[in-house]
Design goal:
The structure is a single chain. This protein is α+β, with helices and mostly antiparallel strands. It has a single domain (about 5-135), classed as Alpha-Beta Plaits (2-Layer Sandwich), CATH 3.30.70.141. The protein contains seven helices and four strands. Strands 2-3-1-4 form a four-stranded antiparallel β-sheet. Helix 3 crosses helix 4 (about 60-65). The longest helix has 11 residues, at about 120-130. Bound molecules: cytidine-5'-diphosphate (CDP) and magnesium ion. Cytidine-5'-diphosphate binds near residues 54, 59, 111, 114 and 117. The site of cytidine-5'-diphosphate has 9 residues, from loops.
């Protein structure tokens, strides 16, 4: 997996609120190329596995319920310095701490329901892309 890729999900509440297009526009405007994209609803098992790193955290149960509670839009994004630049574009986990102009500042409703996911490292970006997409679902 190239290190100029990151993985994102538009989270269930943002999809349900009709913000998929606006968020996708912000991503494209920021210079990211969409290499793969799908609408899907995660099972509880899949959401639990995706967020397994947070298994011991007090919010894990609610996170799994929330992330499996409605469709998400998963994407693989490409750009130079993709992981860091995308984390900058989405803003802090808690929208109260997110900078103006970030996706979470504009669309997150709480620290839990914060509109989008972004990978936190090249290593996790590769794992997360593989988790959601097979090779034939990614454009060259
Ligand atoms: O998504 P991000 O990498 O910014 O944050 P994280 O610490 O990896 O947490 C993953 C997700 O768990 C967050 O995006 C929130 O949806 C949720 N979370 C939560 O509900 N309560 C917290 N105190 C921290 C995270
Ligand atoms: Mg994280």
């Amino acid at each position: 997996m190239a290190t100029n890729r990151t993985f994102t999900m538009i989270k269930p509440e943002a999809v349900a609120q009709g913000n998929t297009g606006k968020i996708t526009d912000m991503i494209i405007e920021a210079g990211f190329k969409i290499k793969a994209m799908k609408l899907k609803q995660l099972t509880k098992e899949a959401a639990g596995e995706f967020y397994a790193v947070h298994k011991e955290r007090p919010f894990y149960g609610e996170l799994v319920e929330y992330m499996s509670g409605g469709p998400i839009v998963a994407m693989i994004l490409e750009k130079e310095n993709a992981v860091a630049d995308f984390r900058k574009l989405i803003g802090a986990t808690d929208p109260a701490e997110a900078e103006e102009g970030t996706i979470r500042k504009q669309f997150a409703t709480s620290k839990a329901e914060n509109a989008v996911h972004g990978s936190d490292s090249d290593e996790n970006a590769a794992i997360e892309c593989d988790f959601h997409f097979s090779a034939d679902e990614i454009v060259g």
